[in-house]
Amino acid sequence: MTGKTAPARPQTLYEKLWDAHLVAEDNGEAILYIDLHMLHEVTSPQAFSRLKALGRPLRRPDLTLAMADHCVPTIRQELGTPGIEDTASRLQIEALSRNSAEFGVEHYTLGDLRNGIVHVVGPELGRTLPGMTIVCGDSHTSTHGAFGALAFGIGTSEIEHVMATQAIRQRKSKNLQIIVNGQLQEGITAKDLALKLISVLGVDGATDHVIEYSGEAISTLSMEGRMTLCNMSIEAGARAGLIAPDETTFAYLKQRMPADAWAAHLPGWRALQTDEDALFDRTVTLNASDVGPVVSWGINPAQSIAIDAQIPDPRDQADPRVRAVMERALGYMQLAPGTPIAGTAIDRVFIGSCTNGRIEDLRAAAIILKGRKVHGSVKAIVVPGSGLVRQAAEDEGLDKIFMDAGFEWRQPGCSMCAAMNSDRLSPGERCASTSNRNFENRQGPAGRTHLMSPAMATAAAITGQITDFRTLI
Ligand SMILES: CC(C)[C@H](C(=O)O)[C@@H](O)C(=O)O
Ligand code: SF4
């Protein structure tokens, strides 16, 4: 012992979270301890079966939380699983309940107020906390990074691994810093910012990176907005998205956990910041004031443009591969280059998903909708992200505003985000959607999706076409 200690190297938040959970490391491969493992019905059954076949116990049922969201119907949930018409969905949801009971996992069944989309429920129940490592067999686990937790999606074999060991094998990602300076304009949301960022970065622009978002525009976002932004990190290829916890985070959590536990955590949470002079592999800077309402026109989220822009022309692209992707998108979406995106007629509106199914999203929609009607040619549904969101909305009378306008007021679930249940587009239908993916067939075979914010989807519902919501306020 020399008595000397190496000077502490400045670290990013990602590096701090990594080090705090590092169990072992060898040749770049690490084992990370996992603080919270969330399960849903689609990606957990095989892992449970393997565990059973091997006769292994679930290592930490107390750090595991299960709920059905993808396949659940968004009507008649009070009937429980017997009310599910689709047999495959019913079996999957029943299997989750059975497995949860067998392994002692906390599980919210259909119709339980606490049930909903896993990425909405974890945070709102105070299970998602700053400084945690959180995994789930679902790519949008990145949502939880909004709290300064290292949260990422995992595959089925990894689910089994976490179930058995409460740890996971990982390689360290690179670190991408995204600084958003200035303030977002009135009514412009984290969704517009996310779509704008993805259109700048590209769908694989953040591959192999963990993003940390910072800057004035980020610090003024609500927790709901931060979750929307971190949720969509994955659509730029990122492993995870992170926002350092601050007073907004602490205030959100204060309402969701026992006061003594909250106070005990606080000093540790405050230390979850990127050190000054810490090094990132890359930095991207954006001015919030340059962001207006953004809408996707194509078949990936990077194919997004400002509401006052024209559909891009593949002939302007030098790269033949980019041109080919654009041509395919235009063909699938049945859009002509050079035409304004505003004015595109739509058939369906979907407000919901783990991106935009929170109370703030429903409020943003209801403010515009109040006293107006859904256009005669449009079928519109609103699907709260959880039972608690639904209840909060009803307490505020938002359900009435939606129903009076002609929206269907549904029960919680992923619904039309991924069409893994009976909520889906018919072939050829065009949808204004607050979800996060506009891939071909995503919302139903041959369905066409335009991603946008809740305010923009509401404006589309009212006018029957893609519309700048600011013309309605
Ligand atoms: C079903 C699930 C594995 C999938 C995901 O990982 O994201 C789904 O949630 C999605 O949004 O496409
Ligand atoms: S709401 Fe959509 S994106 Fe989110 S978990 Fe469900 S299917 Fe995936």
Automatic annotation (TrEMBL):
Its EC number is 4.2.1.33. PROSITE patterns: ACONITASE_1. One of its GO terms (biological process) is L-leucine biosynthetic process. It is an enzyme of class 4 (lyase). Residues 428-447 are annotated as: Disordered. Residues 15-464 form the Aconitase/3-isopropylmalate dehydratase large subunit alpha/beta/alpha domain. [4Fe-4S] cluster binds at residues 354, 414, 417. Keywords: 4Fe-4S, Amino-acid biosynthesis, Branched-chain amino acid biosynthesis, Iron, Iron-sulfur, Isomerase, Leucine biosynthesis, Lyase, Metal-binding. Binds 1 [4Fe-4S] cluster per subunit. Its cofactor is [4Fe-4S] cluster. Pathway: Amino-acid biosynthesis; L-leucine biosynthesis; L-leucine from 3-methyl-2-oxobutanoate: step 2/4. Belongs to the aconitase/IPM isomerase family. LeuC type 1 subfamily. Catalyzes the isomerization between 2-isopropylmalate and 3-isopropylmalate, via the formation of 2-isopropylmaleate. PANTHER family: 3-ISOPROPYLMALATE DEHYDRATASE, HOMOACONITASE, MITOCHONDRIAL-RELATED. Heterodimer of LeuC and LeuD. This is 3-isopropylmalate dehydratase large subunit.
